[in-house]
Design a protein that fits this description.
This protein is about 35% helix and about 25% strand. The protein folds into two domains: about 180 residues, Rossmann fold, CATH 3.40.50; about 70 residues, no CATH class. The chain has seven helices and ten strands. The protein is an alpha/beta fold and about 260 residues long. The longest helix has 17 residues. It has a six-stranded mixed β-sheet, with helices on both faces. Strands 2-1-4-5 form a four-stranded antiparallel β-sheet, covered by helices on one side. Bound molecules: adenosine-5'-diphosphate and magnesium ion (MG). Magnesium ion binds next to α1.
């Protein structure tokens, strides 16, 4: 998908509260944001600021108290099945082989069984996991499981991919590896991505734009356009502009985190 400037995902004035006992606790306060076609957008915010809640609202699993979710120009608030979603922990079917985990996604998306098998193997080779096609998920490392999980989200072929802290549970080296891997794959097939992280480096490394969220009730503190060229160099973090932006986001997060005041 080429970046066209067309807005694919549009959130308008989303607010959400939860009841804690009899008290209504606001979690999201008037969140408006958008993702354009072929754009990689990241939400960064402190833990508990409502990022996963926002994903549940986009995915239609829950409804906002007010506001609208619009995908490709159509209001879809409360409708399910329109985005592909990748959770923090890989959610693979433990009773299916790695290849079948992939092909079952393709079958669900409408591909014939035999064709799905062939495509699954091709994809696994392409992401250097051809050697474990017939293994079961539990024998894979955390990083490998997340690659398979990402591939499944990719192959669902929805307009928007929502990735909720997909690398948070991985060790630092595996995480850096995964970031490079994801960038490479994404840069050859530019899907529209909404990515959640609380790592500033990860956000700057991967994204075209970043929304910085405050602590709950989350508001958008700032929208940052990330200026680094694509394909992005692996050592982009050494650039002075990177260090400067990192400091800016850190300041924002510290100021916006009311729990620190
Ligand atoms: N179903 C729910 N019922 C009540 N409170 C919830 C529910 N889901 C989330 N929350 C609360 O909403 C806040 C935001 O949670 P979450 O969206 O998971 O944050 P994040 O993903 O940014 O860490 C937390 O305080 C959490 O306890
Ligand atoms: Mg979360």
């Amino acid at each position: 998908m080429k970046p066209t400037g067309k807005v694919l995902l549009d959130l308008i004035g989303i607010s959400k509260s939860y009841l804690r006992g009899k008290v209504s606790v606001p979690v999201l306060d008037n969140i408006s944001l958008h993702v354009r076609e072929g754009e990689f957008v990241t939400l960064i915010g402190p833990s508990g600021s409502g990022k996963s809640t926002l994903f549940r609202l986009i995915g239609g699993v829950e409804r906002p108290d007010s506001g609208h979710v619009i995908i490709d120009g159509t209001e879809v608030t409360g409708k399910r099945g329109l985005i592909s979603y990748m959770p923090q922990q890989a959610a693979l079917f433990p009773w299916l082989s790695v290849a079948d985990n992939i092909s079952s996604t393709l079958v669900t998306a409408g591909t014939a069984k035999k064709e799905a098998k062939e495509q699954a193997l091709k994809w696994l080779h392409r992401i250097h996991l051809g050697g474990v096609a017939n293994e079961y998920p539990h024998v894979l490392s955390g990083g490998m499981q997340q690659r398979v999980s990402f591939l499944r989200a990719l192959l669902m072929r929805r307009d928007v991919m929502c990735l909720d802290e997909p690398f948070a549970a991985l060790d630092a080296l595996t995480r850096a590896d995964m970031q490079r891997w994801l960038l490479e794959l994404w840069e050859t097939d530019r899907r529209s991505v909404l990515f959640v992280t609380h790592s500033i480096e990860e956000a700057l490394m991967l994204s075209d734009r970043i929304y910085v969220l405050s602590s709950a009730p989350a508001t958008i503190l700032r929208e940052i356009v990330v200026p680094f060229d694509r394909p992005r160099r692996a050592d982009v973090w050494t650039e002075p502009a990177f260090v400067e932006l990192k400091r800016e986001v850190l300041n924002l997060l510290e100021k916006g985190d009311t729990t620190l005041v």
